[in-house]
Amino acid sequence: MTSQVDQSEAVDGSDGGEGRAGSAPPSARQGRPVKPTQRLDRVIIRFAGDSGDGMQLTGDRFTSETASFGNDLSTLPNFPAEIRAPAGTLPGVSSFQLHFADHDILTPGDAPNVLVAMNPAALKANLPDLPHGAEIIVNTDEFTKRALAKVGYAADPLADGSLDAFRLHKVPLTTLTLEALKESGLARKDAERAKNMFALGLLSWMYHRPTNGTETFLRQKFAKKPDIAEANILAFRAGWNFGETTEDFAVSYEIAPAALPSGTYRNISGNLALSYGLIAASTRSGLPLFLGSYPITPASDILHELSKHKNFGVRTFQAEDEIAGIGAALGAAFGGALGVTTTSGPGVALKSETIGLAVSLELPLLVVDIQRGGPSTGLPTKTEQADLLQAMFGRNGEAPVPVVAPATPAECFAAVLEAARIALTYRTPVFLLSDGYLANGSEPWRIPAVDELPDLAVDFATEPNHELPDGSRAFWPYKRDPRTLARPWAVPGTPGLEHRIGGIEKQDGTGNISYDPANHDFMVRTRQAKVDGIEVPPLDVDDPHGDARVLVLGWGSTYGPITAAVRRVRADGGRIAQAHLRHLNPFPANLGQVLRGYDKVIVPEMNLGQLALLLRAKYLVDAQSYNQVRGLPFKAAQLADVLHAAIGTLDAEDQR
Predict the structure, then answer these.
(1) Which UniProt keywords apply (predicted)?
(2) Minimal CA–CA distance to 626: which of 527, 548, 553, 521?
(3) Residue 24 pLDDT grade (very low, low, confident, very high; cuts 50, 70, 90)
(4) Which of 277, 297, 623, 264 is nearest to 418 (CA)?
């Protein structure tokens, strides 16, 4: 879904959103009084239900319509690892949270303003996150004695007063859906499945969301089953009409479009942005893109997406295992392609030997690691920044590898272009560290013009490059560029450029097998120097007044929660500086100077302090970790409290 945004034609939302939505179901608004509309600047909605209730689809559709309306947004899908967890149980709850606003936002939100709970398990699993006064919409048809007992409710929470602190809406979603579809001819079981579309229609009415896109989507999704498509559309419209007519919902809400920089926007997830970035890198480098991969959560979507783009010369190879996947990708790199492999932490462990081989061969290779909780299988569908030290050191011998980490879902596009620049320029494998939060979350992305993208053109070796003592010329595969220390890249089959490859140590220049101690020492130091010498931008520091004493430093997906927390601290009058690392190996050249410029450095991470460990070792600064490994992103309020405490500690020390 794309939309045009031009600040010179800002929308003030004075039409109540109806003009932009322009798509109330035909049965709505015919001779009925219009309910009052309340203006909000933002709202956080969470859809929650059983794994089979279609919560991810419901959330995705609401997100797409919100993006087309022009709101800024951020999402947090959250679902079990099991393909089908036991129905009606707490482990089987799937949820989708969406934060949308009329201004710039950074996170999916700390606590939902609205919870749609499709069953007792969904209510019980998500109730602790709700602030008092939040709205709860429950499917009363599912609150049977058996369902309540399955999740440990001794009494019905809809009737015992335990929800009096919330605005409770009891809606028989299943019954209303079946009534709406009684003429559809569908079996009861099939008709019940459309209750998520009824809920979507109700929420679309409540928040003035467009509807045409969802109806078009449903017709396309079920093009081979038009009866199913029309049933879902009927349920969707029935939900809209229920909101319009029921007395239980007296008010609808309006969130005006956000004022974004001019351009063409679309909603995009991190994995989709990575996929498009890889295609762009292939196009800008002039190299065919080859993905050698083995399916693993949460990276599999990249394989799925790239397999759709053969028209761009993309070749995808679903290998029999992780080792074969990276082996094929490295072979493609040897053959002159942009070689890529995608995986998560367990797969990185299996790929480590071949990554070491790529270091030795000095060939460009992109290793895309969508991090998840570990160790072992760990938390397959939950997020974590667990693999930084694995990316840095998870190989035998001295095998340095550059590491790049995007900060937001949309930034995944630019980050993979940067990783490709480094790999192609310096002839090295490069890690790109995304994570499950970025991979599955989404936000608006301004589509760049082609001429805004970097030129990644590659010069292959085409002729001998070294003169021998007898005056003849030969090809030396390890004769280096004096600036980048990169070796030449010779495509196999180029006449006169035959050369040896393999994992055994190479002689400097010739590439012949060498066991000479001095040569090995030289080659190890040279490979390290090549990575250390990679040109990366200096670290930008956000310190508006220039007098902050506390610096909060992050990397990867902690950017949104950290930035939101910093905004809260500054709104409260606190002075605090913020910086965020995209390049983790090598670090920006000015990082040490930045760290030494502050009295206290706080490093929030979704691990047990991996970046903090690197900073303390390299720069001998007292970087203080703030960590969580819960499979969920930080909450902004939680981080703001930590930062306030850090500032308060320094102030207290000054007063002693």
Answers:
(1) Oxidoreductase
(2) 553
(3) low
(4) 277
